[in-house]
Amino acid sequence: MPFAHNGDVSLYYQATGAGDDTVVFVGDVGFGSWQWGWQHRAVVGPFESIVFDHRGVGRSDAPPGPYSVADLAADLEAVLAAADVSRAHLVGAGLGGVVSLALAHDSGRVRSLTAVGSGLTGAPMDAFAAPDDRAALRASTERLLSEAFRAEQPEVIEQIGTWRAQEDAPERVWRAQTAALEGYEPPPLYEVTTPTLVVHGTADAQWPVDGARSLAEDLPRGEFVAYEEAGHLVGVERSRLVNDRLVGHVEAHSDS
Fold this sequence. Notes:
By secondary structure, the chain is of the alpha/beta class. The protein contains 10 helices and 8 strands.
């Protein structure tokens, strides 16, 4: 199994497909790799896709917290180095969007950035649920999705609950990752010149849509796309539309 190393921390990653450009998915607080099932398949083929586990999640090491955005950005850069990727298109969800933004500011390794359900403010601890409590997992998952989606696709909620029970981080890691957001001081956004697509659901209760809109407006090359009445997991609810936007954004800023 491939692992990257940031000091003493081992980070599991998986590369799939081949292409002149690489898309790297950077996860949200506490979630396992299940969260990228909808987007990962959209980019494999024209591009190489890399999914990795944040420290504390899945097969990556879980050092004591709290963590910082700088720690997580350094982990991401270690994954790029281990996978021999000089420049990548980053797709970050929630916390992953913040981490990707930090790396885009500090490094020339980011070709483009897509932030999905992310901004500079949020309350991700609200999504934690114990893996052995299926009722809590279902309730937690439902809060991440719109009322319309919950009514139309209850089977998807059940499947996500199963994946979360198997893959999500324990509570101590969830808190350690959440701590990375608390007190985080973002860089001057005018200095982040990476082309950035900010994708958000207007009914996102985790990360308020106004924060995502402001993020896109404050970035020199930011673009904001809103999906009406979609919840935090907008990449699940509106996967086809989000994927079309994502692939188009990557293609527009690709060398291939």
